[in-house]
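Section: Multi-chain targets

For targets with more than one molecule, the full set of components is provided together so that the structure can be written out for the assembly as a whole rather than chain by chain. Components appear in the order listed by the source. The example entry contains two components.
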Amino acid sequence: MTLLSVRGVSKRFGGLQAVSDLSFGVERGSIKALIGPNGAGKTTLFNLVSGVLDPDSGEIVFRGEAVQDLSSHEIAARGLVRTFQHIRLFPKMTVLENIMVGRHIHGRAGFIAGMLNLPFTWKEERRIREKSFEIMELLGIADHARAEATSLSYGQQRVVEIGRALACEPQLLMLDEPAAGLNMRETNEMGERISKIRKMGITVLLVEHDMSLVMKISDEIVVLSYGQKIAEDRPLSIQKNPEVIRVYLGDDQ
Amino acid sequence: MRARYLPVAAFAGLIVAIQLATHFTGSAYHLTQLTMTAYYSLLIVGLCMLIGYAGQISLGHAGFFAIGGYLSAFLTTRNLSSFKGSGFISLLSKAGLLVGRADPYGGSLLNVHPWCACVVAIVVTVVIAYLVGGPVLKLRGHYLAMATLGFGVIIYRIVLGTEFLGAADGISDVPGFPLLAGLEIAGKSSLRVPNYYAAWGLVILGMVFLINLIHSRVGRALISIHGAEDAAGAVGIPAARYKLNTFVLSAVFASLAGILLTHYNGGIGPSEASVMKSVRYVAIVAVGGMANLWGALSMSLVLNYLSLRGYFGTFDDTVFGVILILIMLFAPDGLLRRHLFSDLRRFFSGSAAGEEGP
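Its structure, encoded as tokens over all components, is:
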């Protein structure tokens, strides 16, 4: 069953056609990867799907609902949550607090309830805290709960960001270059973590440059070049696809 | 008791200690300025929430203060006795929303009851804050500052140029604001001590509300918006709505401060709406450490008191302008902030190390 389908989406920035007439789908429970050379439009596509940008034309359907005109917080509330290529943790907040912010859409205490510290918010806060600890234990960062999030190592900050996204309990998790800046050991751990997330029943769409990671964990791969889809297939077939080889390695003159 | 309420208890103790000190030194007249300071402080802590936690500047909060103060002053001084025959007025009168009193010349007045005027003023403030905040909060940085400044200027020119608001004279003879059991918010010297406690009690209640808010789901969301707005949106936080609600909340604090101070002083003038007042409020929040409610409150207590006692003389506005410039230049995180002592230590050890060098 298709969880997300991108249908004929285009986006132009001035004279640059960043994404042009792009279509693909993401099956529920799968891991799908978007690859392509720099400037192929991967991050633009992420921004379009997550509501940071609006497409010029085309349709983005998530769980049967057209979401291309919704803003990013509305899309997140529907269960489509992303991480950022450049880590965007909340400064001056602990790891625990960062994860707790991720539980936002599952709470309902508003301004009045918060100011009056109404009893129902105590229970809600306790649940938010418990769930956040569960997530930190799952990802192996519970020891750092009280540390300021931005004081952690780069690799750990990436994990915190994924933890924050998982705290939303998304249906679809979009990871923008989760292995960027990680060493080989950390990259392997990240691969295992992503497989674990899929086993929890969360569908994953990722952009990644590390080919060994992509080939190992993905069910399907979409290859972009200059904003267009040039291939969509299983990892083994993608590796043999002459068009993909030409785009990545240049023409064999 | 939760640790977050310990400073509340300490502050309440300080308020009592100040009153006792003025009592035993025979200087109870200080309580008048301290009571006025309390009402300004109510505005300050609300503004601190907006600037420090939601990350939005406002140079127009004197405008909200004036909206509250002027509306309440107008409604409670406007004589409606000549409209007694009209159905609407008699209906209001029957509902107990009007109050009769004697004017100084022996005539009889029929005014809107202060509580009713207060409710009207707050409702109008909320409506205006939503109408202004909606479009204005889409702006950032300098542009937001300029737009709110424009709002403040508009309110100032309106109260200055409107005849039924007293133009340059403002509105006087505003009645006291009745509380329980004969107590009222008014500047009578016989009510000095209860007024002092009523005003600071209200500030403490406001602080408890804001401290609760900061430690709630909404507070976390606000701090996250301030830290990384795109990331907050990516986990489902509607940043625009939260900023707007905080703007309205701070406007209500400002308006309530304006209403009660007007009843305490028995009047209000256009200077309360002036832009220099707004600058002063921002300066106090800045010197208190931006995202630091206790810092803003303590700075408000000290600076407003000194200003109201006239220690700054004719340089009153200058002092606050200079404070703002100095803070922006040398301590953009404010004077009272979390790492103050470690920063000071580093500053002095750093300069000492510099002298030792070649």
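The longest helix of chain B spans residues 239-265.
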